[in-house]
Automatic annotation (TrEMBL):
PROSITE patterns: PTS_EIIC_TYPE_4
GO cellular component entries: plasma membrane
Name of the protein this chain belongs to: PTS system mannose/fructose/sorbose-specific IIC component
Record's keyword terms, sorted: Cell membrane, Membrane, Phosphotransferase system, Sugar transport, Transmembrane, Transmembrane helix, Transport
GO biological process, one term: phosphoenolpyruvate-dependent sugar phosphotransferase system
Localization, UniProt: Cell membrane
UniProt main location, coarse: membrane
Keyword hit for Hydrolase: no
Amino acid sequence: MLDAFLVGLVVFLCVGGHELIGFSLLFRPIVVGPFLGLLMGDVQTGLKIGAALETIFMGVINIGGASAAEPGLATALATGFAIKLGGGVDAAIALALPIGILGQQIKLAIYILFSGSMAPVFDRLAAEGKQKQFTYLHFGVWAIWFFAYSLIPFFAMLFGANAVQAALNMIPEVIMNGLSVAGNLLPAVGMAMLLRMLWENKIAVFFFLGFVLVAYLKLPLVAVAVIAFIVAVLIAQRDYQLNKLEKMKPAAAVQTASNVDQEEEDFFA
């Protein structure tokens, strides 16, 4: 009961908080996993699952009405089941993506049900200039929306843990090994999706530089991150100097033209 409450609370605070206070990224797996792990007494598992799922979901983007997956709910349930059932990171990763896809559709359905139905009331209060009532209604709809949404992980943890455990016990070992392999591949897929969006030919050299530093020189990721930061600072300084030179060119051209005119006047004087 307590574990189910904690999972629902984390979804309400993180996913709902992200929607309430702007693009705060509280719903990201790297936040939800460690936070839930701290509350459930297993921070290490929360960190592992949060980091693993972040590499998957960082390449999943919701554009307009095309929604892919909701990482907050997926991470909360995956972390909760992994800690409660002792399934480990591999099993949690295998469960996370389908949970996230289903969770996004449920979230949109609840949003349409509550927020969509209240749209005429918002319009009427705005037209009448009732700012206080408008604000109260805004926070009220938000609270109802995410309270209803947080009931999903609550009941899933409350009634689904035993069912999930039984299902995992029924799965043959060869299939579980396959799920583990697939789960280990998913972070690479997420990174590939992100790299595809960011890729430009002029930055390809940095990609291969990072590969060489890790694969051949065996540098830790912290050292690679420090090197990347130094390179970014150098590039920023170069761009800043180039921008200053570009701004100085018109002034120099005007000064040169003025000097030429003055010399011509002196010549004909």
